[in-house]
């Protein structure tokens, strides 16, 4: 348990994920402003702007993660709410320092699921390409559906 809570890597991932929430919200606002100013924006341009901002968000997340990981010893407090006394801000930071590594482990485990699904689907597509498999003709599918209905499947 203490190894996880004291891991600089997991601390940096946790703070980077926490920061990415407001970073991506800021980029979302930029996207909405960018597509609302011109009147007739083509869907291809909207898609290009969205993809560019998603790439920028990933780059921003990566930059945040690397800077937090490298400068972990120099950062004393990350959260500072101006209306709260310093003691509460300090306890909030210490609580986040305890919780964020465990949240980072959960986050990384949840990232594994779509990666495994992507690899499985990629391998399936490669099998389809290798053996030149295609969908069955419409006539055969209709025939199979009719026979299945007749026999109660």
Overall description:
It is built from five helices and no strands. The longest helix is centred in the last third of the chain and has 45 residues, at 86-130. The protein has helices at 2-5, 8-36, 43-70, 86-130, 138-151. It has 153 residues and is an all-alpha fold. The termini are far apart. Helix 2 runs antiparallel to helix 3 (43-70) and helix 2 crosses helix 4 (86-130).
Order of helices and strands: HHHHH
Anisotropy-based shape: elongated
As a percent range, the share of helical residues equals over 70%
Beta-strand proportion: under 5%
Distance between the termini: 53 Å
- Secondary structure category: mainly alpha
If you compute it from the alpha carbons, what radius of gyration comes out, rounded to the nearest whole angstrom? 25 Å
Q: Tell me about the biggest sheet?
A: none
What would the average pLDDT be, to the nearest integer?
A: 87
Overall number of strands: 0
Q: Which assembly state applies to the chains in this document? A: single chain
**Total number of helical segments?**
5
Low-pLDDT sequence parts? none
List the defining traits of the structure above.
153 residues
Secondary structure topology:
Elements lengths: L1 H4 L2 H29 L6 H28 L15 H45 L7 H14 L2
Kindly summarize this structure in a few lines:
With about 150 residues, the protein is mostly helical.
């Amino acid at each position: 348990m203490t190894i996880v809570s004291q891991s600089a890597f997991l601390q940096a991932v946790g703070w980077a994920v926490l920061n990415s929430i407001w970073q991506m919200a800021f980029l979302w606002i930029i996207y909405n402003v960018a597509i609302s100013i011109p009147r007739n924006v083509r869907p291809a341009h909207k898609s290009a702007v969205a993809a560019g901002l998603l790439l920028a968000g990933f780059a921003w997340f990566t930059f945040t993660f690397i800077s937090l990981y490298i400068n972990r010893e120099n950062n004393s407090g990350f959260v500072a709410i101006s209306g709260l006394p310093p003691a509460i801000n300090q306890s909030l930071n210490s609580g986040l320092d305890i919780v964020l590594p465990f949240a980072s482990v959960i986050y990384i485990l949840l990232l594994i699921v779509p990666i495994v699904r992507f690899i499985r689907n990629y391998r399936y597509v490669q099998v389809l390409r290798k053996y030149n498999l295609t969908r069955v003709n419409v006539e055969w599918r209709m025939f199979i559906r009719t026979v299945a209905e007749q026999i109660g499947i």
